[in-house]
Write a structure and sequence with these properties.
2 domains; two-stranded antiparallel sheet; 12 helices
Length: 336
């Protein structure tokens, strides 16, 4: 047994689940792994739980614990924390089941209803106002957005063109982003879960209202523009969401939040361009650095979404940079 496996077994025993059977449930693009524990349970007792194995120093489970408890206090179905060992990177969390949106949709689930429910979760955060934010929460705004978007010229561009960005073009890219973000209409920040999409949402039909939507993978939560998570939801890098559902979610959010439609649309386009630029770079970094090619087949979709966002007038400076440095012929990297 490896040292890591021995540490996990000890944590499970100390948490009172030493008699449970364990099986690998999932891994993701990070260093985290998840294991399902199953044991016979007396009537009314919990028979399943999930172990998050997030080895330090690469991972830190403390933000997950903090955000999970905060979301639950706001009435959102994040997993309950059953036991924790933050020093060694282990959590025992509530098992929310296997019905991710991805699986439910694959079985023919109602796309419109699922996405409406997920939009309503975001509206809970919006209506919570300042209560949705936590002290010390990082701001995903301004230079932080730009720095994250640097993954496009730093990772995608060399892979697609065979050379690094020419001298001065990284600064020109940053400057283009600053000019674009200067057009962002003022709007109150909300809590951003950051990876709000079909693989991190679960259908929990036995729960009432918005609690029927379970949420996962929110440990990187920050605060920022309220459109960001809606972009993540309806412009999913891994799935084509129908245009009708995209419009319905956009309209519902704007209407229920009482926002100016044109201002929100500008923010939506800017957040979409930033997210897609970052994701394009992330997928190539996963290939080149982490030897994980599985995400490459999504690149054509993300490029379509990126190009769509770049059509907005507020994105003209960035559109000019992309057209100059990454013309259409270079946007085929990873395409079948």
């Amino acid at each position: 047994m490896s040292e890591r496996n021995a540490l996990r077994a000890d944590f499970v025993r100390r948490a009172g689940w030493g008699d449970a059977a364990e099986r690998l449930l999932a891994g993701d693009a990070s260093f985290r792994k998840y294991f399902r524990l199953t044991r016979p349970a007396p009537q009314g007792a919990v028979g399943q739980a999930v172990v998050m194995d997030a080895p330090p120093p690469q991972e830190d489970v403390a933000p997950f614990v903090r955000i999970a408890r905060h979301l639950r206090a706001l009435g959102i179905s994040a997993p309950e924390i059953l036991a924790e060992d933050t020093a060694h990177g282990f959590l025992l969390i509530e098992d929310l089941g296997d019905d991710t949106y991805a699986r439910v949709l694959a079985r023919g689930g109602d796309e419109g209803e699922l996405y409406r429910l997920a939009t309503d979760v975001l509206l809970v955060l919006h209506h919570a106002g300042p209560r949705a934010l936590l002290p010390g929460l990082g701001a995903y705004t301004g230079e932080a957005l730009i720095e994250a978007a640097m993954l496009l010229p730093e990772w995608y561009l060399p892979a697609a063109t065979g050379h690094e960005a020419p001298a001065g073009e990284l600064d020109a890219y940053r400057d283009a982003w600053r000019r674009c973000l200067a057009a962002l209409p003022a709007m109150a920040d909300t809590l951003l879960l950051r990876d709000y999409h079909q693989d991190n949402l679960l259908l929990l039909p036995a729960r009432p209202g918005v609690r029927a939507c379970g949420v996962l993978d929110f440990q990187d939560a920050q605060q920022g523009h309220p459109s960001y998570d809606l972009v993540s939801l309806v412009e999913d890098a891994r799935r084509d969401v129908s245009p009708a559902v995209q419009r319905a979610c956009f309209d519902r959010y704007v209407s229920e939040a009482g926002l100016d439609r044109a201002d929100f649309a500008t923010g939506f386009a800017l957040m979409a361009a930033q997210r897609h630029a970052r994701v394009i770079g992330v997928f190539v970094r996963l290939l080149k650095r982490d030897r994980k090619p599985v995400y490459l087949h999504h690149l054509p979709r993300v490029w379509r979404l990126f190009e769509q966002a770049l059509r907005h007038d507020a994105l003209q400076p960035l559109r000019a940079w992309v057209d100059r440095l990454l013309p259409p012929a270079t946007r085929r990297f990873g395409a079948p």
